[in-house]
Design goal:
Length: about 250
């Protein structure tokens, strides 16, 4: 099959850490992942700038935890490798499904909407299938993504996304309900400087749809939270952090 190429990484590499550094308390993510990994290797799909992978590798080093990452964006990996301790992550350039490292891994981390950066249902299914195949016995897959909001308007035009002392970031998007794809662009407006546009696309899926894809890959839900601090997941949660494991029948 022909795999989609999402250019998100190349477009956002230079500002990713600045925009998303406060998305989570990194220490909470590190603890969550390492408790599941115990002393086994960790693979992060869509490793990006190493925002998560580097601190996981730092904390896990004393226990011999190897952290491997893969990303399709050379620009993102350049940011990772330029960081102190970036060399602690065994980072690979490639499509995270087609070129997924074979492992075995105790944890496969698919963080912050990375699954949704795959723009077709087929690719998302194959991602979970291949991730399941590279787990150690008793291993886990962490899927972290937003919960689709049925009330999201089909279109948004130039709403303020965020402001800084020197610029304003405007957001617009449109939703294709049939393909479940949101196509958007952030436009950075900075005084007399030229505007900078950063387009993106995501293929969202409901919690039930992700579960169904995981079930087809021989996985079962082990845990589900709305944060890395184990906040209870409810019908009103806007984010799911789900831990999947191999179904007993699939591992026997």
């Amino acid at each position: 099959m022909e795999y989609s190429h999402n250019q998100y990484g190349d477009v956002f590499a230079d500002i990713y850490d600045d925009w998303y550094h406060d998305l989570d308390n990194i220490a909470d993510v590190v603890e969550f992942v390492l408790q599941l990994a115990e002393n086994s290797a960790v693979l992060e799909l869509g490793v990006g700038t190493g925002r998560l992978a580097i601190p996981i590798a730092q904390a896990g080093a004393e226990h011999g935890v190897q952290v491997v990452g893969i990303d399709s964006s050379q620009a993102m990996l350049d940011e990772l490798r330029a960081k102190p301790n970036g060399a602690l992550v065994d980072a690979h350039l490639g499509h995270m499904v087609r070129d997924m490292p074979s492992g075995p891994f105790g944890v496969v981390l698919i963080a912050y909407n990375t699954l949704f950066n795959l723009l077709t249902e087929h690719e998302q299914r194959e991602c979970l299938q291949r991730a399941a195949q590279c787990l150690t016995p008793g291993g886990h897959i962490i899927v972290d993504c937003f919960v689709p909001d049925d009330s999201l308007p089909d279109q948004l035009t130039d709403a303020t996304h965020r402001s800084t002392s020197t610029s304003q970031i405007l957001s617009r998007w449109q939703v294709d309900r049939d393909s479940q794809v949101i196509s958007g662009v952030f436009t950075q407006v900075s005084g007399n400087a030229p505007n900078i546009s950063r387009p993106y696309s995501v293929r969202y899926a409901s919690v039930a749809q992700v579960d169904e894809m995981a079930h087809a890959a021989g996985l079962v839900v082990e845990q589900r939270w709305s944060s890395y601090t184990h906040e209870v997941f409810t019908e009103s949660s806007v984010r799911q952090i789900t831990v999947y494991g191999i179904a007993p029948s699939a591992s026997s």
